[in-house]
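Complex 460.
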Amino acid sequence: MKLFGTNGIRDIVGEGLNARFVADLVGACAAVHGARGLAVVGTDARTSSPAFGRIAAGALSMGGIDVTELGILPTPAIQYNVPLLGARFAMIITASHNPPEFNGIKGIASDGLEFTKETEARVEAAYAAQEFPRMPYNRIGTISPDPNGGARYVEGILSHVNVETIIKKRLNVILDCGNGTSAVTSTLLLQRLGSRYITLNATFDGTFPAHNSEPTEANVQGLVKTVRALGADLGVAHDGDADRAVFVDEKGNYVSGEKILALLARECIKEHGGGTVVTPVTSSDSVAEVIAPFGGKVQYTRVGSPVVTRKMKEVGGIFGGEENGGIIFAEHQMARDGAMSLAKLMDLIASSGKSLSTLLAELPPYHLVKVKVRCPVALREKVLEQVPSILDSGKDTEVTTLDGVKVRYPNGWVLVRPSGTEPIYRVFAESKDLQKAEELAKNTAKKVEEIVSGLEAHPA
Ligand code: MG
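Predicted structure with magnesium ion bound:
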């Protein structure tokens, strides 16, 4: 029985995700871990999260496990507290950036990383076998609230940046919490960094009245306008569980995630005098280019943050991340961390004395173009078989099939891969020549469309 997806369990509240399911699933986690020690429970700010969080705490306690309830906090804040509190595992109730009707459950291991595939499989087996622990009255675990999880997490972040330098700069920052969990932690971080900050949507509201919880350019137009109107130094927006951060420069331009990834990767490698950066095959070549002079090298992976963090642990990577604003600093913790990205970017702006737009203009001028192609899920594999035939892979090219098919040419690359969550194929093309990147993406997408319609017209 498969319950866990690429990033935990996500489903619609009242349908797949209901009280009974949460109690049984968390009960199965308790069964797998055994009736002893401590577990942590924390939630995002969705309407159903307090209820599911209490059900989870109850199920663990009835399984003979003591519970520390951290309340509403960002996913990375909860992860940070797991090893710190000596917990054996954690249950996080969150659906990250999904629409308001969703919620979800993430399992976190004692090291603060997501459950391994093996643990997930054991939980799924226990759930299928209805193995829910039933402890007698004298073996029930305790449940204790802990209001200090957010403060501990912010202190952890502060220990990795030049606090005095940032405070001196008194940066004007506009923070869009998107009615999510960052309202409690990124505000505290900005206070501690001496920022003259203004918040938008900084009240918890699981109906997401201001904008959807995913910090796309379209969703954070309120932030863009506020940065422009107030002449701020920086704008930042988090998704609902604040493991991601996206930025707006001082001119009011939304900054693409791959540029922030390259900028912060370079700083991290520079600071550590070399090291490995782990990032998926979809990432811009600018990352590899900017870290090379400082002794950095890139290790590519499949798409998905749990894959990136596990690979970082395996190869001793010091920095990792994806172009969607999810960045991992190993010195802090092996988890995507929106507030840590904000602190590191403020550190770079303050220490360099340069504005964000100036720092971005110094990056190599790569253009990464992304196009979607509709493809029914049933045809996903058949389409993938035919993809190599449409890509020019002659002399001077290098083909990678780590995730989808990527072909590298002397002056750019193209990648075709099926989405894991939506009925689409994604085509990525990158070059220093914008027109070339656009043409490569457009022509490749057209060929993928032809494969899909060919298969639809003549099903095998
Ligand atoms: Mg998230």
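The domain at 9-147 is CATH 3.40.120.10 (Alpha-D-Glucose-1,6-Bisphosphate; Chain A, domain 3).
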